[in-house]
Design brief:
The chain has 298 residues and is an alpha+beta fold. It has 9 helices and 10 strands.
């Protein structure tokens, strides 16, 4: 059997995800007949049937499901290799840090200061994205290291916990819930998150559980909260940055803490990356020690 080509895998993944040859062809910007021939050639090459085809539908076979899983991984690796090669060959290398704006536990400025004193440091570059986009950016080679909240897709990544902090509910100050000093998820019946999912079923630790929020940034999300259109789960550090008279923040007793985690690709060996991980862990440990030793607030 000849080795598979990247083009073959891209064709196969498009059909497997669309489960429709016409839509897959449009996605690939080609016509349907050559795509159908390419898939038949791939099946002959592998000696297996990848799709069950009828006049009404296209379905993956068991062999197709296996190939889809591994083909996605292979295509991610190819894409990442190209991005990392370009980065390594750049005349001005940088350390690309993926994160959602403000979701850093308040640690990022201190981490960057500590990292800047490392001998192996190169200039940092922030790669800002939406909630949950950072792991894929790392797998595709678009970033070198990331800051994320649990849970996340850990495929192909190393991780190091940095800190935990309470998750608070952001709610309009005029909402009856704001009159409570603390809440539980059962109290949130009838309230929805920015993505439209029920707040009482929100998955702990995710700032935007369920569907992606219609707002593009935290300022817009908090505007929805302020007008009573939604409620929002947020780490305490984000709440401290977004103090607004129209919003009340309340602890939710049955939500676990938000866990800020440092992630980077498996088998990465960059001295600059190692220096950043070292700086982040040092800053997080020092911040945790100061928090424990601080006097309680009455």
């Amino acid at each position: 059997m000849n080795d598979l080509e990247v083009k073959q895998l891209r064709y196969f993944v498009a059909v497997a995800e669309e489960l429709h040859f016409g839509r897959a062809a449009a996605r690939l910007e080609m016509t349907q007949p050559p795509l159908s021939r390419a898939i038949r050639d791939l099946e002959r090459q592998l000696g297996v049937v990848l799709f069950e085809r009828t006049t009404r539908q296209v379905r993956l076979t068991s062999a197709g499901h296996v190939l889809l899983r591994d083909a996605r991984t292979a295509l991610e690796a190819v894409t990442a290799a190209a991005h990392r090669a370009r980065q390594a060959g750049s005349s001005s290398p940088r350390l690309r840090i993926a994160l959602k704006a403000d979701v850093d536990g308040g640690l990022l400025p201190k981490i960057l200061d500590a990292y800047g004193s490392e001998a192996a440091a190169v200039p940092p570059e922030l790669v800002l994205g939406g909630f949950g986009e950072q792991p894929q950016a790392l797998r595709e080679g678009l970033a070198d290291v990331g800051l994320v909240l649990l849970p996340f897709d850990e495929r192909g990544l190393e991780c190091e916990p940095l800190m935990t902090e309470p998750v608070l509910l952001a709610v309009a100050a005029t909402d009856p819930l704001a009159a409570h000093s603390r809440l539980c998820l059962a109290d949130l019946a009838g309230r929805t998150l920015p993505g439209g999912s029920p707040a009482k079923h929100g998955r702990p630790g995710e700032p935007a559980p369920g569907a992606a929020p219609p707002a593009s940034n935290l300022s817009e999300i908090f505007s929805l909260v302020e007008t009573g259109s939604a409620v929002f789960f947020t780490p305490a550090s984000v709440a401290r940055r977004y103090v607004r008279p129209g919003i009340a923040y309340r602890p939710v007793t049955d939500l676990p803490d938000a866990a800020l985690t440092l992630i980077w690709p498996q088998n990465a060996r960059s001295p600059a990356l190692a220096a950043f991980v070292r700086a982040a862990c040092t800053v997080a440990a020092a911040t945790h020690t100061r928090a424990e030793s601080a006097p309680a607030i009455a």
